[in-house]
């Protein structure tokens, strides 16, 4: 078995461009891209306590929605996906699921705020809403960069002759985010959280008597 490994390594090195350095660079690129994803998700999590407290000040009776956001945030904090676990598809799916739950909880919270005009005009709430919308856009950008970094790395790991080098140095394909609509995720969305309500219809003309 050892002789076979040595032979495979020798063959890979004799071929033009064994890809060792490329694998290292792309592996580091994936880790860097993942760190940015985590940074943006953490930024969102850090905004939530102030957001919940602000909404509670105007809509304390919305306990179900407020509790849902708080619990969803707690779930995201319970999952620590380090770069070493990026090959674990199940771990990434679980991470993605809890972040998705938090996104849905936040949408529910923002929908509720439509019922409280005083809250919607509160300067602190408006700033938090803007910060949250900006963070959602940054999350999308960071996710897209990570998806591309993983795709490039996985192509290198699977391609000949770099697949021989990858096998020798225990580089394997990494899990990636799943998206329902690749075209939609390729660009950051405009996040409005329900503020883009349709304009009210003009009043009907009075019927002449």
Short description, anyone?
By secondary structure, this protein is mainly α. 68% of the residues lie in helices and 0% in strands.
* Structural class assignment: mainly alpha
The global form is elongated
Number of domains: 1
H and E string: HHHHHHHH
- The CATH architecture can be given as Up-down Bundle
* Low-confidence segments: 180-209
Helical run tally = 8
Name its key features.
de novo design (two linked rop proteins), 68% helix, 209 residues, disordered C terminus, mainly alpha
Description:
By secondary structure, the protein is mainly α. It has one domain (24-185): de novo design (two linked rop proteins) (Up-down Bundle). The chain has helices spanning 2-14, 20-58, 63-77, 89-113, 117-120, 123-158, 162-168, 182-185. α2 packs antiparallel against α3. The protein is elongated and about 75 Å long. The model is unreliable at 180-209 (pLDDT under 50).
């Amino acid at each position: 078995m050892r002789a076979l490994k040595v032979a495979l390594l020798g063959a890979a090195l004799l071929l033009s461009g064994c890809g060792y350095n490329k694998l290292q660079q792309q592996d580091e690129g994936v880790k860097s891209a993942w760190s940015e994803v985590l940074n943006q998700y953490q930024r969102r999590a850090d905004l939530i306590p102030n957001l919940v407290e602000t909404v509670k000040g105007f809509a304390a009776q919305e306990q179900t929605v407020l509790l849902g956001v708080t619990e969803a945030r707690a779930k995201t904090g319970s999952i620590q996906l380090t770069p070493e676990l990026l090959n674990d598809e199940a771990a990434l799916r679980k991470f993605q699921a809890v972040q998705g739950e938090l996104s849905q909880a936040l949408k529910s919270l923002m929908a509720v705020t439509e019922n409280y005009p005083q809250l919607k005009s509160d300067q602190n709430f408006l700033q938090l809403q803007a910060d949250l919308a900006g963070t959602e856009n940054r999350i999308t950008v960071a996710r897209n960069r990570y998806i591309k970094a993983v795709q490039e790395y996985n192509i290198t790991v699977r391609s000949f002759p770099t697949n021989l080098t990858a096998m020798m140095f225990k580089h394997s394909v990494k899990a990636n985010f799943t998206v329902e609509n690749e075209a939609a995720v390729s660009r950051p969305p405009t996040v409005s959280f329900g503020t883009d309500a349709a304009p009210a219809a003009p009043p009907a003309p009075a019927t002449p008597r």
